[in-house]
Amino acid sequence: MSGLNRSLGLPMLIFYGTGMILGAGIYSIIGKAAEQTGETLWLGFLFSGISALLTALSYAELSAMYPKAGAEFIYLGKAFSKENWIASTIGTSMALSGSATAAAVALSFAGYVNQFTNVSTSLVAASVLLFFSGVAIIGIQQSSWFTVVSTLIEVGGLIFIIYLGTLHEKFGIGISFTPTAGTFAGSALIIFSFFGFENIANLADETKNPEKHLPLAIILSVLIATTLYVLVSISALTLITPNLLAQSNAPLMAVAKTKSEQAGSILGAVALFSTANTALISLIGSSRILYSMGSAGSLPKIISRTNPKRKTPWVASMIILVAALLLLPLRKLDTVA
């Protein structure tokens, strides 16, 4: 067994956190959220952002106190040191939750691919999971550079949507400031779109200065994502009705198409990078939880085995891959989410 490679600084951690959050949410879940929230879509994102920030503050504090890969598993192990089953149960649950996120965004990726060509959704989603599991095993530095490029592209796509909305003479006029029951119901789904910041804590063993940089990266990632989400949702409802947004399998692509087919194609391509990026980061974060549990003896030691040359937890990565693949037969994005 070999330790992990400490090569990540603050900028790279922010890219990881922001990329994970944005890909898991706005490109894949905004349509289903609009179905419930209607014109209060932006409020749903704001409320969820506030809730996510409160949780992020807790993660920021805990990641500074216990800078170890495994996050929830480590924190609960410290809090309930005499009840090991609590940390083990939650740690396993969080790892499987990450595999579900990877499966959900892989299905979303397939949905955007189907806007360009008619290929089996399950086949595309499975190919995404297999490919990025391979990238994750090759090395954290290689994964990081893909994350940087993809995050820049997906942020650029969101800024493009915001720009298209601001060009409309009625930008923001139709939004509602009065929360409804649908707003809060939608927020329960939208909170999925903020999942990802907690994965930053799982990179502790690969971070150069985890006590300082992990908390900053967690908080900044949530603030950046919330700002973009609110502005994008306002722009989206300026250009398209909530019903049309909900009916689309590629919602932001549908928004861009209100301007031109070319704009829609650009957003479709951006969404491919975004969802692929989130799949990669989910696979990485989840595997680090299992790695930590294996290292601590809560799971078989073989799970913490790493590649001596690449210094990546390849056994844990393969387990997360299999768990994600097993969710693909469910097919429906909102069910997996």
The count of strands amounts to 0
Distance between the termini: 34 Å
From the alpha-carbon coordinates, what is the Rg to the nearest angstrom? 19 Å
The portion of residues assigned to helices is: over 70%
What is the H/E string?
A: HHHHHHHHHHHHHH
Strand content: under 5%
Low-confidence stretches: none
Coarse morphology: globular
Mean pLDDT, all residues? 88
Count of DSSP H/I helices: 14
Structural class label: mainly alpha
The major β-sheet equals: none
What descriptors fit this protein?
single chain; 337 residues; mainly alpha; 71% helix
Overview in brief:
The chain is 71% helix and 0% strand.
Structural summary, described in words:
This protein is mainly alpha-helical and 337 residues long. It is built from 14 helices and no strands. Helices cover 71% and strands 0% of the residues. α1 crosses α7 (140-167), α1 (10-24) packs across α12 (261-296) and α2 packs antiparallel against α8.
Helix and strand layout, with pairings?
Elements: H1 10-24, H2 30-37, H3 41-65, H4 72-79, H5 84-113, H6 121-138, H7 140-167, H8 181-190, H9 210-239, H10 242-247, H11 251-257, H12 261-296, H13 314-327, H14 333-336
